[in-house]
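In response to reviewer comment 3 from the previous cycle, which asked for concrete evidence that the modeling workflow produces usable outputs, we include below a single protein chain processed end to end. The sequence was submitted unchanged, and the resulting structure tokens are shown without manual editing.
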Amino acid sequence: MRPGDRHPQATERFERAQPNELWQMDFKSPIGWEAPTGPLSVIDDHSRYVLVLQQTGSTRAEPVQEQLQIAFSENGLPEGMLMDHGIPWWSSTAATGMTELSVWLMKQGIGLHWSGIRHPQTQGKVERFHGELERALQRRGWQGKSAQQWLDEFRWEHNQVRPHEALQMRTPASVWRPSVRRFDPQPPRWEYPAGAHVRRLDGDGKLKAYGRNWNIGQALRREWVQLVAVEDRVLVYYCRSVVRELDLPKRDAVAVSRYLFRQEEA
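The workflow returned the following structure tokens.
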């Protein structure tokens, strides 16, 4: 990594204690890229190891899922993933925000976390990586390479060559290790704890419980969910993630904003 590509270190950082406890995922802005969006990035929170750096050309779910399948097959599964409120992993028109892609991730037993709205610091590591990438591109140019070739070489350099102050001047590759959780293309139905209060949603993604029908979300139609009572509210879990909150006194199903990822800088 060239000295000019370095950037100042944040004064305080928060991180997971081990590799693969949390992966951060986001698209870079389209500035400087001849495409509707910049590359898709997936980075390990603990080691800063970049698992995906791919110019998908769009934010459609299919190419994103394809890249995640490759990453999961080669590296195993993370415990959780942190994303913003953007497509294709979030839908602003869905009751829960869930999409087919986010449901696919949850079926793998990955806990999903959402950053604060208009608060990019929550995804601090992937944001800093995108800044590093942009500065490198401005200084170096494409050097006669295709966008993906340039990204592949930059990813290798970031992981294998560049030491990080936050890693005590080690490289991400020397800190990261593959996950022991293996990817299953056809995962079995999620097993909730013994004795859990479990219900199945109907074909419209609605839950019949507590004397009424609650709108949970089309993306979860006919799926099994777990209900966990907390005082006068009920948390609705799908696999390991909270997807809805039932306000019993108001008889309303509300968003789960209080369970969004709240670290100031992840």
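Confidence is low (pLDDT under 50) at residues 1-13, 257-266. We consider this sufficient to address the reviewer's concern, and the full set will be provided in the supplementary archive.
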